Amino acid sequence: MLGNRLAELLSGSEFHDVRTVLYPGSFDPLTNGHLDVIERAARLFDRVIVAVAQNAEKNPLFTPEERCALVVGATRRLRNVQVRAFDGLLVNYVRGCGAQAVIRGLRAVSDFEFEFQMALMNRKLDERVETIFMMPKDTYTFLSSRLVKEIARHGGEVRPFVPTNVGRALAAKFGSASSKSQTT
Ligand code: ADP
């Protein structure tokens, strides 16, 4: 028993547990701000599960399947990122996935109050679930899915704000000429 423990300590295997975090959200659609947070999390953790909420908004532009497919397309090069649709109580889903923590993005002080409330409520529901806040690159702090949809709806240029596949999907929804001209 003691021998096994000693061998474990010497090999460092006790540090080899897979660290999994869940990044939940509506992702309607994924923006470069979301992607920036995913990339940062993927560098810190062994496995990042992007959990696309099915019931997040009453009237989403994209179906849960479309939103998942867009995240899959944009994160393909990140080997330790998985994408799943989820429904129901977040804390239950976190434990079910074998994740230790939830990632949320903080753009500005305005995000803080709601996120703080949600993090503490989740902790009340299950104190083992930690919430980790990550800040995107400063150029993405003004970005939101809602604004991107508004711009695309009115035919504006969304290319600087979203991954290429999302730009194409927005163009298909709204028939925006600027987004249609993307080639990759
Ligand atoms: P939700 O409906 O859960 O807020 P969102 O898709 O809008 O879903 O956001 C998911 C998470 O990503 C939230 O923590 C949100 O604060 C964060 N987020 C949204 N936009 C950005 C951005 N531009 N930069 C960093 N984090 C962001």
**Order of strands, widest sheet:** 3-2-1-4-5
How many domain regions? 1
The rough form would be described as globular
Low-confidence stretches: 178-184
Task: Tell me the total number of β-strands.
Answer: 5
Percent of residues in beta strands?
Answer: 15-25%
Percent in helix:
40-55%
Give me the CATH superfamily: HUPs
Hetero groups: adenosine-5'-diphosphate
CATH architecture designation: 3-Layer(aba) Sandwich
CATH uppermost class: Alpha Beta
Structural class computed from helices and strand pairing: alpha/beta
Task: Tell me briefly what this model is.
This protein is α/β, with parallel strands linked by helices and 184 residues long. Helices cover 45% and strands 16% of the residues.
Structure overview:
With 184 residues, the protein is of the alpha/beta class. The protein has 8 helices and 5 strands, in the order αβαβαβαβαβααα. It has one domain: Rossmann fold, CATH 3.40.50.620. The protein has a 5-stranded parallel sheet, with helices on both faces. α3 links the parallel β2 and β3. The longest helix is centred in the middle third of the chain and has 17 residues. The relative contact order is 0.16. Bound molecules: adenosine-5'-diphosphate.
